[in-house]
């Protein structure tokens, strides 16, 4: 059954419905964020502060800090240490904000939920490394709303302590994704060994604190300024087209509009059966609504389902959640009708946010 224009309107976000409902060197700093994170970095046109003593920089917020005030003004949480690319994304999204570093992705979610921060800016996907699956899972666990997106170009730099030259380096330290994105360039520079940590800026901080002479960090130029390191090489990523897309999260949704490009993010699950996914995608295709992204993740609360395929033993299959971004605003009746139609046979459906599309330069 296809919903008509007279179908009841669907609330813009937070709506649910359905038929039923992870280092080789000892670290002296709290770098324990998820290894699935992307610590990309670029300062763009952001003002670069003068070099400061790393000890005076704010440490990442931990769960124990969540009841502490963080100062006046709009407070924006991000994962990582000061100088992380996520901080650059937060300042691009909210230029006059007070940034709040957090130890984990989940800590950033909790900071907003507990009113320690007003917003969170966290990575969703990278053009080279793909999706940040941890944050997709956290979107479902927490009741925050996506209120915007921001894209940030990644420009990796090779950093080292003053006096150290490239030929002195035997190892490069950074987030695994950053190391992978610079693999060919590092090899050409004669740097054969890699040391993975959980944050690009954290790698710069560690090298500065321990005064390492044989190890360089792959991080941003902002991290070099903050931790007093020299930039030995710029733009060392193997692919120049390296962009990370971040989501902006808030406790309350924004009111969707139709006078500018909007995107809506949803998550749903389906019954097992032939053509079920085709049927779900058809509700958008028939209304000429474009899908810009689709991501499947195993359903953690229902990871396996038993299927009778006329075999001697029952087969077990993964049960999936589908995360989809559509080019439409929830203020558009066409999008409302599409989700109304999907709700008729989806076992679970939730709108994660309806928000303006980022049309700026990365």
Automatic annotation (TrEMBL):
Residues 75-251 form the Prephenate dehydratase domain. Its main location: plastid. It catalyses: prephenate + H(+) = 3-phenylpyruvate + CO2 + H2O; L-arogenate + H(+) = L-phenylalanine + CO2 + H2O. GO terms for biological process: L-phenylalanine biosynthetic process. Pathway: Amino-acid biosynthesis; L-phenylalanine biosynthesis; L-phenylalanine from L-arogenate: step 1/1. It is found in: Plastid, Chloroplast stroma. It comes from the Eukaryota. Converts the prephenate produced from the shikimate-chorismate pathway into phenylalanine. This is Arogenate dehydratase. The gene is LOC101755353.
